[in-house]
Specification:
320 residues; alpha/beta; Quinone Oxidoreductase, Chain A, domain 1; Rossmann fold; 2 domains; 7-stranded mixed sheet; 6-stranded parallel sheet; globular; binds NADP nicotinamide-adenine-dinucleotide phosphate
């Protein structure tokens, strides 16, 4: 029987269980994909943490509305095993990336054809399954801040999943890239074309010293007050500062907050349009998808614990 990882309650990773679930049926305009690798993202544990609404013991929010437990896994790569009658362009046996996906922490996932991107033949399964959420977010952030050749862009959290993508994509655009990270990750960032800067007290002075001609744009992949305060002090035009982690302070500062939260710019079209180019570049080796650890599906809770506690640079991946 196929398996699905699902939360049994709102809470910490310990609430995750493996359930036996039937192979899904394809929608009329959709497919079923045998998952080979599913990317793990912070949103996955946030969704069942209760962070997005107050949940009581009976899984009801503060307004008394029952909170539906989420289906986990927003991205994966795998092989098409079934197609709906109107699933134009998709064939059984196609090797695909699925993004956005719903419920990809599983042996099989159903998805609309609009979520399929051909997997480049040279791109390994784990890299393919973990490329899109971080990649499209980074592409959106650089688009929102209009980063182009000649810019000097500061990426906060440059060694994270999204940060590593933002660093590479910004460097590809011809920008000078400064990236904040713990010192142990500086060599990695240098190898990707960035000037690494240690975060923490004194960050503003260190960035100024590293970029004497100034900083023209900033992308915050961390969400700290330090990242916000440093960005607004360095970048003259607040429309050229984007954060992927929304807080009230960020909205009040007049910077761009991107994502799916209330009042944020979801960038659906920008992200959708970025997918093919990301796949192509990753397939040709021009965009690296760093993998920290690969866990079997049964170890989803362990992967989430590693994500929450902090881990080495690179994506966490689940393989069925
Ligand atoms: N809005 C959106 O569409 C969207 C999309 C994806 C993710 N997100 C959110 O963005 C955040 C990052 O996601 P991710 O996947 O990149 O996470 P991640 O892979 O866990 O990376 C987090 C990074 O933050 C760095 N970090 C920790 N403390 C820091 C500090 N005080 N200052 C600067 N950097 C610090 C760490 O770098 P070191 O190891 O070098 O310390 C780590 O590499 C999460 O909150 C996630 O939910 C939003």
């Amino acid at each position: 029987m196929p398996r699905t990882v699902r939360p049994t309650a709102f809470g910490t990773p310990e609430v995750l269980e493996i359930a036996q679930t039937p192979v899904p049926l394809p929608a009329t305009d959709g497919v079923v994909v045998r998952v080979r690798a599913a990317g793990v993202n912070p949103i996955d544990w946030k969704l069942y943490s209760g962070a997005f609404h107050t949940v009581d013991d009976k899984h009801k929010d503060s307004a008394g509305v029952a909170g539906a437990l989420p289906r986990l896994g927003l991205e994966c790569a795998g092989v098409v095993t079934a197609t709906g009658p109107e699933a134009s362009g998709a064939r059984v046996g196609d090797e695909v990336i699925v993004y956005p996906a719903t419920g990809a922490y599983a042996d099989y996932v159903a998805a609309p054809v609009t979520s399929l991107i051909p997997k480049p033949p040279g791109l390994p399964w784990c890299e393919a399954g973990a490329l899109m959420l971080a990649g499209t977010t980074a592409a959106h952030a650089l688009h929102a801040t209009a980063v182009e050749e000649g810019d000097t862009v500061l990426v906060h959290g440059g060694s994270g999943g999204v940060g590593l993508m933002a660093v590479q994509l910004a460097a590809d655009l011809g920008a000078t890239v400064l990236a904040t990270a713990a010192e142990r990750n500086h060599e990695l960032l240098r190898g990707l074309g960035a000037i690494p800067v240690r975060y923490g007290a004194g960050l503003l002075d260190r960035v100024r010293a590293a970029a004497p001609d100034g900083v023209t744009a900033a992308v915050d992949c961390v969400g700290t007050d330090e990242a916000l305060d440093t960005s607004v002090q360095l970048v003259a035009d607040r429309r050229r500062i984007a954060s992927i982690t929304g807080t009230d302070r960020r909205a009040a500062a007049g910077i761009k907050v991107i994502g799916n939260g209330p009042g944020q710019d979801a960038g659906v079209d920008v992200r959708r349009a970025a997918r093919a180019g990301l796949a192509e570049r990753a397939g040709q080796g021009g965009l690296r998808v760093l993998i920290d650890a690969v866990h079997p599906l049964e170890e989803a809770a362990r992967a989430h614990r590693a994500g929450i506690d902090g881990h080495a640079p690179g994506k966490l991946v689940l393989v069925p």
